[in-house]
């Protein structure tokens, strides 16, 4: 199908191409209202639409936002983060161009260069989890960091408040009456999120007059299998030293603890209370019982990042915006069993 050109509109309306351009771009001119109406009517009749490339060169606005990420498209949380960003973009007439680099520096460098050369109106750089990173070379000024922050500042960034999240998870167990609270930590690459959650856990224990027990701080792969092994290690302790409550680094670890507990006749929450982290879809609410957990605000972070990228809100380029991580209460937390009433799982092996 042949594209209708501006000159075709001019010929059909009996005016010059310059007149058509002035009218259709609402430019200041001395063109009569009658001529303007005729030009617009003819443009509609012949099916003329502006060339977006030509318009972007003229206005320096392409209507696109670049979003570069390491593995956002393959993580269970990416959908909510991307949906939040795309909602804001769509509400403001922008299209998001997503490039998932799978963590390859060469692909990342090429993606950033290509998006800059295509004159995107803004850029968002997203990470699969909260971490501190060196800013990639070539990022334009004003690039917004999503779920990560540049180690030297200089860019707006939004991250979850993982310290507060660690506090609220631990406080939930303390408020239920627990004193022996374990933290199953991430043993894989120690992202900043793990350190912040650990600090929140330790601070709440200290404020509650609970002496932290190093035996209750164990490490696990961030998987259900890792959670099962961590639970076995914790319950290999002498009965008086076992936890009555567990704060798991993420919901997958918590799911493994639940599976192990069911297998060994330990009731949740009657014998053991568990708090997870992430509020992962198809995991937290589907466990038996449904998991009390801390929600990561991925959709809200995606919206915030896009609003900053579009200039809809201001942000401090040297201090990341901390997004609240609320507790989601379900049925996996209760008061601790009376001393000595909890079952010994090794008796059922």
From TrEMBL:
InterPro entries cross-referenced by the UniProt entry: HTH_LacI, LacI/GalR-like_sensor, Lambda_DNA-bd_dom_sf, Peripla_BP_I
Domain of life: Bacteria
One function term, GO molecular function aspect: DNA-binding transcription factor activity
Stored SMART domains: HTH_LACI
Domain HTH lacI-type: 4-59
UniProt keyword terms in alphabetical order: DNA-binding, Repressor, Transcription, Transcription regulation
Name of the protein: LacI family transcriptional regulator
Species for this entry: Microbacterium proteolyticum
